Amino acid sequence: KAGVTQTPRYLIKTRGQQVTLSCSPISGHRSVSWYQQTPGQGLQFLFEYFSETQRNKGNFPGRFSGRQFSNSRSEMNVSTLELGDSALYLCASSLGPLPSETQYFGPGTRLLVL
Amino acid sequence: EDQVTQSPEALRLQEGESSSLNCSYTVSGLRGLFWYRQDPGKGPEFLFTLYSAGEEKEKERLKATLTKKESFLHITAPKPEDSATYLCAVRGGATNKLIFGTGTLLAVQP
Known about the structure:
heterodimer; A: mainly beta; B: mainly beta
């Protein structure tokens, strides 16, 4: 079974631009979560989607947004990029929305903001 | 506040030298404790899920255990290919968000 896929794998943007990252979950998984990973802050939760509805949200500014489609694929968008948004953005999928379910991670999208 | 603390931050072992990594947590109503392994530039790779105190799980040279306050990841006779960052995460509390520790960077020298 194919794992979680994320596109693009690498991205370079300049301050003020916006970016959209894509995530395809494991087949049959309906829950998708997004995380930001930086050397200073580690892995931090951005948001979680199930059945096209945002179920949970982390402590990030409104510039960070996401959505989920009917086929469970998800996108996240960052508007008005700042230098501090440079990070590895990770997507994870699980079968359903239960907190006890294991999340499986994709390879990530490395975003560099210049 | 829900919190996860991992220790040590870094650990260097000789090949074959067994050791343990610690993950202590404060969360009310634990719904699951998760161990992941992360190689540089890659996404975390799932290792174990533990749900209740006393539970143990094993996979090759790794064994994870859980108490009411902490979890241990025991590495028996490690090999250089076990070198990676090991991440612990918990889910529960009021928000049910998956909260990660900062990880233990393990280096196994041949």
